[in-house]
Amino acid sequence: MRPRPEGPLSGLVALALVGFPVGCREGGRPAAAPAAHRYTVRAEVLRLPAPGDPRPEILLRHEAIDDFTDAEGRVVGMASMVMPFAVGPAVSLAGVSVGDKVEVRLLVNWAEPAFRVEGVARLPEGTELRLGRSP
Fold it and tell me: Of 22, 51, 104, 125, which sees the most CB atoms within 10 A?
């Protein structure tokens, strides 16, 4: 039988080994699951940020995002819904009005967490959105 190490460091080593994340997991999330995902989705603008707002948000009714990935890295899809999104600092909303149909590039970052618009482009008049559930 091998002797067990004793002394002040042995307890710390044991705690470190017990607390070491199995499978390199961090915060309950597999290390292989990327924290940030980008999606391109069509939406209707329901509210624009207030002028001078230090943390501008846009309210969108977006189409379903079939390949939406949750914080654990699973593709779960997202039904169409109304959601507020932060507006990235480099995003121009010039020429965009409430009621416009737009295509937006979204950043979803589970590490922050953040749901942020990185780009906006107006869609042609008469564009119909497909609102409903993700398959």
Answer: 104
